[in-house]
């Protein structure tokens, strides 16, 4: 298992070699290992976030989506939570109020909530599609291009649109995922075909489990426009996407999309480790284009909109102080269950990889 190797084989490498590890396929296949955890004093501060525009009074600031020429709101609406609210009426209202408040980045995935997430978001975007940057994800989990192209048609129909602004490979979390995705006839070929057909403008990939797997994807040198990953004030000291992946995205000019700013399910907020405003402000202070938020109520939407409207980036000193404060509660990864457990692993992906579903696992 990669996690066990990470614990047992702490590589001693120079900063330049560490930066380049997994970028060359030869190094990746040789099993170069990244450190699982680091001390706060070892953390290298990330570069300053991109310049914001549209930052007047009562406006949600926007940032460039790297080299695409697009500007996206510094917070985005996550599709998963949208499909889990109590009714389609509430979901539609959440979408409409978010758009009207100035949020223009919308996230979704083909498999979320038995497709309700896309269907309900599509209802909410009726009459507002031209005001948003719409993303969904393809969920082949190793299946071929034909499956991917059918999923694209499904997503377009549910979302009520003739194109996606961004189409990402969903949940790249298993060690063999990069090889499956880049295999002949695999999902990466579908990305190319969808762009050629004009049904997709930009492409990327997502994952929440391991920075090493993200770097294996990047080692293929495919021209991704975006990469989505967990970025929060707990991440930096354990199997860190901020420390290991974010610098490589900056080097390549790929837009970083942050998620799980509250630790995945808000557990650190419930335990009093950090306040929601602090956690979200930290995530938005990183060099990301947007931070995608799970929004399942009008109260949460209004809170996030107000935080975004009043956002001022943390200084490096503030960020370091918050990491130091969080480390006793986060240094072993137990506040990021998406990294350390199977709780957040999608059932479709587990099934396609031949693993038991979460419900079938022993307690």
Topology:
Blueprint: H1 2-8, H2 15-20, H3 25-29, E1 62-64, E2 71-73, E3 75-77, H4 79-82, H5 88-101, E4 105-106, H6 116-124, E5 133-138, H7 145-159, E6 164-169, H8 177-182, H9 187-196, E7 200-206, H10 211-218, E8 226-230, H11 241-244, H12 246-252, E9 255-259, H13 267-270, H14 276-284, E10 290-293, H15 298-309, H16 316-330, H17 337-340, H18 347-352
Parallel strand pairs: 3-4, 3-10, 4-5, 5-6, 6-7, 7-8, 8-9, 9-10
Antiparallel strand pairs: 1-2
Helix pairs in contact: 5-6, 6-7, 7-9
Count the E strands: 10
Can you write the helix and strand succession as a string? HHHEEEHHEHEHEHHEHEHHEHHEHHHH
Q: What proportion of the residues is helical, as a percent range?
A: 25-40%
Strand content is 5-15%
- What is the top-level CATH class of the largest domain? Alpha Beta
Which sheet architecture does the biggest sheet show?
Answer: 8 strands, parallel, barrel
Quick one: CATH superfamily of the largest domain? NADP-dependent oxidoreductase domain
Shape: globular
